[in-house]
Amino acid sequence: MIQVDTTKSVYLFTHGRRDLEQSATDALIANGFSKDKIFSAKPDTVGSVGDYMAMLWMPPTPDHIKIQKITKVEAVKPEGMIGLWKGVSKEELFTIPLK
What we know:
By secondary structure, the chain is mainly beta. 10% of the residues lie in helices and 33% in strands.
């Protein structure tokens, strides 16, 4: 597994599954992410280059978390539920089973 940079923020996308937020947070912490750096993703705020995105996958019944690293952030006009995240480019890193 890739070593995570614990100084970087992690934005958790639950895709409406707030009931899985705590178990997802626990799984992230167990895999090296810092608890105080895990934030719920919001459409009006995006991370910075080098930060992480953690997505419950695959909606509507996710069984794992996709970990991605933000590689580029462009200014965009917010769009729907995606909001400003529309302008974020990322690379896939690894997955974590959701228990």
